[in-house]
Amino acid sequence: MLYPREDRVHRRLLFACRNCDHEEVADNCCVYRHEVGHIPSEQTMVVKDLASDPTLPSTNITCPKCRYGKAVYFQSQSRHPDTRMNLYYVCRNLECQHRWQS
Q: 6, 28, 43, 69: least CB-packed within 10 angstroms?
C-alpha cells in the first residue's frame, strides 16, 4: 500500500511504500483523509444483527426489557486510559434486540 509523503526538496507529493523504497509521483496533489470515530456506546448502534452474530459469545442473562434469558456480549473497544472495561449486551430475542451495558 502506498502512503502520501512530501518531497520537500522538489516540492512535490509522492506516494511511498512503507516496506520498501518504492515511490511514485502523485498525479493529483490532493490527499483525502476519512476518519470515523465512535464512542463505545455508539459502536453497538453501528451493526444491526449483533444478536444473531455467531462470533460473539453468548450468556444466560435476563434482558431488562423483554425478560428473555439469553444475550450476546462484547467488551468495550475504547483504548482511553481513563475508561473502565465495560461489557455490552444485546438481547438474543430477534424481536427485541435491546442493548445495555454492565
A: 28
